[in-house]
Automatic annotation (TrEMBL):
Record field: transmembrane: 62-83, 95-120, 126-148, 155-177, 197-219, 246-264, 284-302, 314-333
Gene Ontology molecular function, alphabetical: transmembrane transporter activity
GO biological process terms, semicolon-separated: siderophore-iron import into cell
SUPFAM superfamilies: ABC transporter involved in vitamin B12 uptake, BtuC (SSF81345)
Domain of life: Bacteria
Keyword Transcription regulation: no
Family statement drawn from the similarity comment of this UniProt entry: Belongs to the binding-protein-dependent transport system permease family. FecCD subfamily.
Subcellular location(s) of the protein: Cell membrane
Protein name: Iron chelate uptake ABC transporter family permease subunit
Organism the protein comes from: Phycicoccus endophyticus
Membrane topology summary: Multi-pass membrane protein
Length: 342
């Protein structure tokens, strides 16, 4: 049948991206000042190695590497959901305001509630993810409500999201400027998107969200495919359009909030990963699982590069922004050329 080769390609790309992300994760476990090889890291994970190697690999580096993989997975999947939901590659959590809302909520937890950059144990380990989720959810609802005019137009939601992002970023900057020096420094370090403070207390909530939300998101894959045909056709095929959209948007919000609360806003991953996965798989829309694994590969790769190749151990958010911004400019140029031709 003609549909089989594309499905095989999607499976191949998905598995390949997963294996590549895991391989980069192993490199990240070995990267650092100690003279460990990838083989030493794998042997230590399997129960071998000396006590010193176990402390370095499992105690210090594994939370950061696992956090990088989970942050990338959450952002890649969230970007695929929002881009497919709005039928526009520019409709990502970064652009439609969800990331800024999560950032504002988390900064309020740091500045106003005395939170820490490391997402310390106790109530704050749940407080920051909760604050980020509330901020992201409220922003998504406001943007969705303002964009609704008998339906959702992708360019309307993008324009409103850009305005919401600018407003929320201004409020966040005001809170940082008015905070005490310690809280301001913690918030400023967190806002660049860094994995240096990643610990098990910040990885666990993120892992729980990814494990719970991912199956729900994948269950919407068929309806997402149908929704590309337009609202009238989607409704005619028995899909509850508004319920489906709210469920998809809710999944994207929760994934984004969990990622932002753990690492800060890691820019452009939610935009870049689905587009790369779509082109690798040669599909009409971003494949969900492949997008998630490409996101994991991008974040884990950026973190490993910042610790081994790039000078000064740059925060991962800066690395992904440097990579993603030129791609965004290129995509905007391509879209403009298509409009001119048509």
């Amino acid at each position: 049948m003609p549909g089989r080769p594309p499905r095989r390609r999607v499976v191949f790309v998905t598995v390949g991206c997963l294996l590549a992300a895991l391989a980069v994760g192993v490199v990240g476990l070995a990267a650092g000042s100690s003279s460990l090889t990838a083989g030493d890291a794998v042997r230590t994970l399997l129960g071998g190695g000396s006590p010193g190697e176990h402390l370095i690999v499992v105690g210090l580096r594994l939370p950061r590497v696992l956090g990088a993989l989970l942050v990338g997975t959450a952002l890649g999947l969230a970007g695929a959901l929002t881009q497919t939901f709005a039928r526009n590659p520019l409709a990502t959590p970064d652009i439609i305001g969800v990331t800024s809302g999560a950032s504002l909520g988390a900064v309020m937890a740091i500045v106003l509630a005395g939170g820490t950059y490391q997402v310390a144990a106790g109530t704050l380990s749940l407080g920051m993810p909760a604050a980020a989720a509330v901020g992201a959810l409220l922003t998504a609802l406001v943007v969705y409500g303002l964009a609704w005019r008998g339906g959702i137009d992708s360019f309307r939601i993008i324009l409103i999201g850009i305005g919401a992002t600018a407003t929320l970023s201004g409020v966040t900057s005001y809170l940082v400027a008015r905070a005490q020096i310690t809280e301001a420094a913690n918030a400023a370090q967190w806002l660049v998107g860094s994995l240096s403070g990643m610990s098990w207390s910040s990885v666990r909530p993120l892992l729980v969200v990814v494990l719970l939300v991912t199956p729900v998101a994948l269950a919407q894959s068929r309806d997402l495919e149908v929704s590309q045909l337009g609202d009238d056709v989607t409704s005619g095929l028995g899909v509850a359009v508004q319920r489906h959209r709210l469920l998809v948007l809710g999944c994207a919000v929760l994934l984004t909030a969990a990622a932002v609360s753990a690492s800060g806003p890691v820019e452009f991953v939610a935009f870049l990963a689905p587009q790369v996965a779509q082109r690798l798989a040669a599909t009409a829309r971003p494949p969900l699982l492949a997008s998630a694994f490409v996101g994991a590969l991008v974040v884990a790769g950026a973190d490993a590069a910042s610790r081994t190749v790039l000078p000064g151990q740059l925060p991962v958010g800066i690395v992904t922004a440097v990579v993603g911004a030129p791609y965004l400019i290129w995509l905007l140029t391509r879209l403009k050329e298509r409009e001119t031709v048509s």
